[in-house]
Each structure stands twice: as C-alpha cells, then as structure tokens.
Amino acid sequence: MAAPSRRKFLGRLPLPERTFVADALRTETVGGVLLLLAAIAALIWANTPISESYDALRDFHIGPASLGLDLSLQHWAADGLLAVFFFVAGIELKRELVAGELRDPKAAALPVIAAICGMAAPALVYLVVNIAGGGSTDGWAVPTATDIAFALAVLAVIGTSLPSALRAFLLTLAVVDDLFAILIIAVFFTSDLNFAALGGAVAGLVLFWFLLRKDIRGWYVYVPLALVVWGLMYNSGVHATIAGVAMGLMLRCSRREGEDHSPGEHIEHLVRPLSAGLAVPLFALFSAGVAVSGGALGDVFTQPETLGVVLGLVVGKALGIFGGTWLAARFTRAELNEDLAWPDVFAVATLAGIGFTVSLLIGELAFSGDPVLTDQVKAAVLTGSLIAAVLAAVLLKMRVRKYRALFEEEERDEDQDGIPDVYEQDNPEYHLRMAEIYEKKAAEHRRMAEVTGASSGGGDRPA
Question: What share of the chain has pLDDT > 70, as a percent?
C-alpha cells in the first residue's frame, strides 16, 4: 500500500487566492509607507522646539460631552479611527475562514499554531524579564502583535520580491494575530461595564446582522447604524474597536452564483484604502510622538518593562513563529516547498517582529495610569520594531536573488493572456499557444537573417 503523500507547505497558491493576496498586499504596502512616514513625522515633531504644538494638538478635545464622547484627538484616533482598521481585519478574518487559507482545518493548523506560538513566546519573554527584574507585568500583551502594513513597508523599502506563498503566509499570520489581539483587548482591557450601553450595542449589532441577512442595500442605512453601535460600545466600557471587528465578521464573504465579488470583498475593497491610507497613519501620527534622547534610549535597555517589549518583539516573535511552524510541520507531516528553505521561514518570522499599530494601542491601554511609562513603552515598541526590521532586511537580502527568480517565474506570461504561465503548464491549449509563439519568433528571426544577408550583398541565402 502506497504511503500517503505529504502536504506541501508554502506551495503555490491557487490563482484566485494569489490574485486576492496580491491586491490586498499592494494596498497594505502603500498604507505601510504612509504609516512609516506618519511615524517619522510624529517623532520629528515631538523632538523639535515646537513639540508643545504637537502635545497641544494631540490633547485637543472635541465631541459631544452629553454623549460621553468629548475626547482628545489622540483618543479619537485610538478608539475611532482604529475601529475602521479592525473592521477591515474582521472582514479579512471572515474571508480567510470561508474562502482563504483557514477554511481547511488541516491547512489552517500550521499558520494558526505559528501565530499562537508567535504571540505566546513574546508574552513569555516579557514576563520572564519583568519577574526577574521586578518590573510591571501589565504590559505582557504589548509585544504580541504584528503590524502587517509596517512589515510590508519594510519589504517595499528594501525592494525584496517575496514569492506569493511567503507573502500569503505573512498575511495569514497577521490575520490570526489580529484575532487574538482583539480577544486580548476585549478580555483584559475592558473597564467597568455599563450594561445599558452594552445592551444597546448588542441590539444594534443584531439589527446590523438582520439587515445584512435580508440583503438590504445602501451605505446610508449601515453607516449611521455603525456609528450608533460604536458610540454605545465605547460607553459600555468594552473597547470601541470591538464594534468594528464584530461588524466585519458579519459580512458575507462567500460568492454566490453570478457574483464576481462577495459583499464582504466589495466593501473591503472600498474601506481598505480608508483604513490603510488615513485611519492607521493618523493613529501613528498621534501615538508615535515620544520624546527620544540618549538617556531615553538607554532606559529602553535598562528598565524591565521596556527591555521586555524589545526582547519580546525581536527574540520572542522570531523564535515563537519559527519554532511553532517547524513543530507544526513536523507533526502534521507537511513538506516545505522545495524552492524554499527553513531560513526563509525564519526571515519572515523575524519580519513579524515589527509590532506597531496594535502594540502602541495595547501599550496605551496597559499603562494608561502612568503617562511616563506609557511613552517609554512606546519608545520600546519603536526600538524593537526597528531592530526587527533591520535584522529581517539583512536576512532577506541574503536570499534576494533566489526570491527575485521565483517572483519572476510566478509573473512570467509569455502568451500574454493575463494568466501566469505556471498556472497553465498542465493545459494542452497552453502548449499549443506557446508552440505558435515560438514558431512566429523563429520565422521572424529567419526573415531578419534574410534581410541582413540581402543588404550586405554577400554569401549564399539559406534554403
């Protein structure tokens, strides 16, 4: 009896999934560059003689106090704009569950285990450092998050053309990472509950779900309802971003007959640029502005809270994701794609140590009663993310020729039919088209040779 074939890990993606991943990551890359620019602008602004204007703008309050929404601009960015980010994350998660890498439990096991280990290891590193150093354990969740937009911005800057399978693996890791970050925020950072407001938010979500099930269309129905649900969720004591992810998960992401795109995919296509291009960069602008000096940077490596964050992002993330992936592959009998090697997985795991958006948010929540420590933890997030980015850039550059060759092979489309040739190699019609193309090229070369021979006036013509 023949042995069962081993499942391929990081193999070629199906064409529809590859197209979706490419489109999603293209938007995330642009958003990541904007995020990077916003973070740099915030750091420069907060460390110049006009830093008081930055603090004044960040702390400026606006909103109806009667509704409990008289918030600072920084608060609006963290609770309001990030709700849009988590709404997109909810749609991504729903799509992964019904049509992506997570729909098959066997295929999902590996990235899910890798993501869980990639969150547990940084938390463990943080706890060990702070228990040994006598620091606060409240920030254990800060180094657990991966910022996919920032990671892709680093890829864009260093110019590495990662194969689509590695990019999809990074995206799936980030989606699962976002899910657990949402659960952490909901469970561990919920203040005293206002049950009346929470009940109203739940009722609003039920109405949102009911309207979707009845195929009611129109942004003018859903946007006002979403704002009401968000306001009630904020006043309930549950972090307001939970409303965003809940509504994202309710959207239908499976296609019906005759549909080119599901409603979830369509809405994600519309909202993702708003999230990546506006919401997240503005959050970075109001959250990344911390005072940085030689003494402050030195404190990052001497205080247990900040050292735990840096080591969690740089060491914990890389070892957790790589170790979880290797163990899961071994015990699920998954075979690594022959075009890649385990150092490639380690490089991606190191890249996942870039924690920015959600790490900054959790840092603000974990140390909300201590503004000085909050800024120090933010500096640690920036420092750890920078170190992880540099290490990942070095590791990826070592394999850049291999990646470029694989990427060019994936993109090659010699018959120019819009479908990469690697997806048509088993199709007889493809080989017939390629034979016709090669014959036309050969005929063109023969004609050119005849013209060249005639113009030179010498030699016999070929028969």
Answer: 81
